[in-house]
Design a protein that fits this description.
By secondary structure, this protein is α/β, with parallel strands linked by helices. It contains 19 helices and 12 strands. The mean pLDDT is about 95.
């Protein structure tokens, strides 16, 4: 992979007239901005359906395959004949949404989707495309659509609390449910059709602009998901579908009790007996959406923390072995070159690093983690970077560079940063210092959160781990993506050998 650079920005953070960013013109314009600034990559967060009960986290989704209907853009629907101009105007609000308002987005877009469904098909071409889509994605779409329809019919209760015959997927009960909920399931399939039609247009636009998309795939899936409901044998569950063991991480410096995530852990022996077919299908699906896929919590493939059911904290867990090399040898048969990026942050064992190097999987280097104890040997310090890896100023789970400097970096760390830079850092320019440091790294790819390119503070933070309110709401301020900013990035990319070819 040649030296290059990119920007981290969730789709929902894009600016626009609707209550949350989506796949409309602003997404296409952002790809154009990346091209203009000499960049090669757009890294995003997961794009699956989100749940308001989970603070709309993109990492807690009812499906590992479905797209988020909230990302569907109404103007693009009107262009394809699903809405008339006057109908579209009726739904537009005068309000300026400077932060994501997921409740408002759901309310307005659900009404738009119902009207679009009433108007379906606007033409024969759309009808044929819908039928082709249903056939192409049947392996996951049928279960997801029925799961979603049942959730709505049964009051959004978790599938473990459904009537036993539906919970346990009795064939007769499923057949009856499909017949009774035929309209509802087809509508759910229609929503997915709309999402993937618009996604394909964005992907095509990015490809034409020379911009690669880096997706994000959570390691675990949600307990209350169509994936677990439809594939119970792949997860460590009891006869009623409750997790026998849940995922998490052990106690550490940051938490005396560890973290208890609640996701069911995998039955890796069962997955291996099926030649990891569910994972192969999942990765194949993601590579249909993206050019490269970041796998969150990569360490889980080598070993994972399993917490017995009923435990109040993760401190009662234990380490279990994951599939390790066997899994990646299986993947190589389907995906030559393994276009994956390993999220290897936190405590990593030598075996994790060995497997990454053996299969040529790049990892992540975060500059905000560098300026602490034992700096000279710190792997995140630029002088210790590996050429094969991706360097970041920060990620969606960190403060912005400015917010980190102002609120988190202690005096010792600030003095260390000053010694390393050779000048005194300030709130107004520390983001430039760290962006330049990332671009100058020997790491082949540099990815910068847009907030750091803009020099924004803690108010622009995307997510604060272990909190459940107020996350995932930041949006790009209107007018931020200026020609001047593009020129500054282009100059830095050219200076450090990261400029995209052809510019």
């Amino acid at each position: 992979m040649p030296r290059s650079s990119g920007t981290l920005l969730p789709i929902t953070s894009l600016p626009g007239a609707w209550p949350a960013g989506d796949l409309g013109e602003e997404a296409l314009k952002f790809a154009d901005f990346l091209k203009k600034s000499g960049q090669t990559w757009w890294q995003i967060l997961p794009v699956g359906p989100t749940d308001p009960a989970m603070d709309n986290s993109p990492y807690s989704s009812p499906s590992a395959f479905a797209g988020n209907p909230l990302l569907v853009n109404p103007e693009k629907l009107a262009e394809r004949g699903y809405l008339k101009k006057e109908e579209l105007a009726h739904f537009k609000s005068e309000k300026q949404y400077t932060l994501c308002d997921y409740s408002a987005a759901r309310q307005v877009k659900e009404n738009i989707f119902k009207l679009s469904w009433d108007n379906f098909p606007p033409c024969r071409e759309e009808e044929e495309a819908f039928e082709s889509f249903r056939l192409e994605h049947a392996v996951w779409l049928e279960d997801y659509a029925l799961f979603s329809a049942l959730r709505q019919r049964l009051g959004h209760t978790g599938w473990r609390h459904w009537p036993k015959e539906l919970r346990d997927r009795d064939e007769g009960a499923l057949k009856s449910a499909r017949a009774e909920l035929s309209e509802e399931t087809t509508f759910q399939e229609f929503l997915q059709f709309l999402f993937f039609r618009q996604w394909d247009k964005l992907r095509e636009h990015c490809t034409d602009a020379g911009i690669g998309l880096i997706g994000d795939m959570p390691f675990y899936v949600s307990e209350d998901s169509s994936d677990v409901w439809a594939n119970r044998s792949f997860f460590h569950l009891d006869a009623e579908g409750s997790p026998l063991e849940s995922a998490g991480v052990p106690p550490d410096y940051f938490s005396a009790t560890g973290q208890l995530w609640g996701n069911p852990v995998y039955r890796w022996n069962e997955l291996k007996d099926r030649d990891y077919s569910w994972w192969v299908e999942r990765i194949s699906h993601n590579l249909r959406l993206y050019d490269l896929v970041r796998i969150d919590h990569f360490r889980g493939f080598i070993d994972y923390w399993a917490v017995p059911a009923g435990s109040k904290t993760a401190a009662y867990g234990h380490w279990e072995k994951g599939p390790g090399r066997d899994f990646f040898h299986a993947l190589e048969k389907y995906f030559p070159g393994l276009p994956l990026l390993a999220e290897n942050l936190g405590t990593i064992t030598p075996e994790v690093t060995e497997i990454m190097r053996e299969f040529n999987l790049p990892g992540m280097l975060v500059l905000l983690f560098a300026f602490g104890d034992n700096f000279a040997e710190n792997p995140y310090a630029p002088h210790n970077h590996n050429r094969e890896d991706f360097v970041y100023t920060g990620t969606h789970d960190n403060n912005t560079a400015r917010g980190w400097f102002e609120n988190e970096l202690d005096l010792k760390g600030k003095l260390l940063l000053e010694r390393y830079l050779g000048h005194k850092p300030t709130s107004e320019r520390v983001h430039r210092d760290l962006v330049r440091m990332a671009f100058q790294s020997v790491a082949r790819v540099s990815i910068i959160p847009l907030q750091d390119l803009l020099g924004l503070g803690a108010e622009a933070r995307i997510n604060t781990p272990s909190t459940t309110r107020g996350n995932w709401r930041w949006r790009v301020p209107s007018g931020s993506l200026s020609d001047n900013l593009a020129s500054l990035i282009l100059d830095l990319a050219e200076l450090t050998g990261r400029k995209a070819p052809g510019l």
